[in-house]
Each structure stands twice: as C-alpha cells, then as structure tokens.
Amino acid sequence: xxxxxxxxxxxxxxxxxxxxxxxxxxxxxxxxxxxxxxxxxxxxxxxxxxxxxxxxxxxxxxxxxxxxxxxxxxxxxxxxxxxxxxxxxxxxxxxxxxxxxxxxxxxxxxxxxxxxxxxxxxxxxxxxxxxxxxxxxxxxxxxxxxxxxxxxxxxxxxxxxxxxxxxxxxxxxxxxxxxxxxxxxxxxxxxxxxxxxxxxxxxxxxxxxxxxxxxxxxxxxxxxxxxxxxxxxxxxxxxxxxxxxxxxxxxxxxxxxxxxxx
Length: 262
Prior knowledge:
The chain is globular, with a radius of gyration of 17 Å. A hairpin with a 2-residue loop joins strand 1 and strand 2. By secondary structure, it is an alpha/beta fold. Helix content is 42%, strand content 18%. It has an 8-stranded mixed β-sheet, with helices on both faces. It has helices at residues 41-44, 70-84, 96-107, 127-140, 146-153, 156-161, 163-175, 178-190, 217-226, 241-244, 246-257, and strands at 3-6, 9-16, 23-27, 49-53, 89-94, 112-118, 204-209, 231-235. The termini are far apart.
C-alpha cells in the first residue's frame, strides 16, 4: 500500500527500483511533492531501491494541525523506515528535505549510510522573511506566494525554455494545502543546526544551484566546510537544481551514492 501511519500521520510513499537493492530516500522541498523527483527515477532506480514520500502537509500525505517542527519531519522518516522494514538507507533531501537529512544524520546516525544535501542550509532564511510568507499564505492561500516561489525555483532562462516543467511545479505548489504549507514554514523558521552540523559523520555530498536565491552557494559551502570530509558541487541552476540541471544532478548523485565518486 502507498500509505503508512506514522506518529498518527498518514504518509504517502512510493518505491521504484529493484527489490533488495540499497535504499535511497528522497525528501521533497517546501511546496512540492514526491513528483519533484521524477527526473531522478530513471537513473537512480537502475541500481538503487528509491523510496519517495510526501512530507506531512504536502501531496497526498495527511495535513495534521501545525505548527510542525524539524523533529516531527525527522521522526516521520524514521517511522516510515521502521514500518517499511528499512534499517539503514541513503538519504537525499532538497531544501526542507535537506534539513530533514541533517536532522537524521545528527539524531539517528545509525540509520543513514550516505547523505546528499541539495539546495539547503543549516539555517534556511530569516525569521522576518518566514513571518511575511506565513502571513501572506494565511491571508491569500498558497496562490499568494506562487509566482515568487517559482522565481526562486527556476532561472528565467529555464522558465522560458521549459514551460511545461514549470507548470508542473506550479500545479504541485498550488495544490499544497495552505495549513500544511504554513506549518512547514514554521518548522523551517525555527530550525537551526548551524552549531551541530560539524557532528555529521555520514559521507556527505552538498549540491547547490549557483543561481539559488533561497539557499545560495554560501549556505552550501558552510555545510561542506563544517561536515567532515564533505564533497561540494555547484550546478548551473536555481533552487530546484535536481530539475533545472537534472542530467548533471543525476550524474553526481548517482556516482556518490554508488560509491564511484570521491
């Protein structure tokens, strides 16, 4: 079944790839769903068992009352892994999903094999910025922030070149329940792992879009400089680097997860 109950929350998930292969968990960004990883599946599922899920408040997962915390998001993943009988996995998270990955590597290091942190930070954004976004969504729904979000997701040239891809991202964003979006913003507003990431011990790859305004390269370099042995890669993309620079993203992530890169 594509749903499991974790911490009293119904979580939607999907497997791709060969049974018995090493598992990699993919964790979505704010305002998206597991479909954001569609361009990764053909490549990653060749040799890996890919587990995607909708973060609580997103996609087809339940929308519990907020606010959410980073602890909630991390424990949802642990509960999902426990329920599905996955003792240890690789983890790849983008933006909000990347913060979840950091939490897992710090709070449950025995569960994480290799870690990919994409377009994320140990501290995402500023309190006043989150307050403004939360206020806008409470007043006008997710539609009130959609255009601004899309301008962060993709560069202007990509939006002109791939309108169908941008429209799919727009549809997922608008479909995100306002309550789930706001509660997730509250989790991001309060999450700050800057003083802890140096304790991450999982082999780590940090990927950043050169043109990402939400979590710019300085945020990625901060993570890579503090996580022992971390590898750092910049791609020619904005915030959703896995979509805008899909081929390059797939190459570097596949090599890393399969142990073929440095």
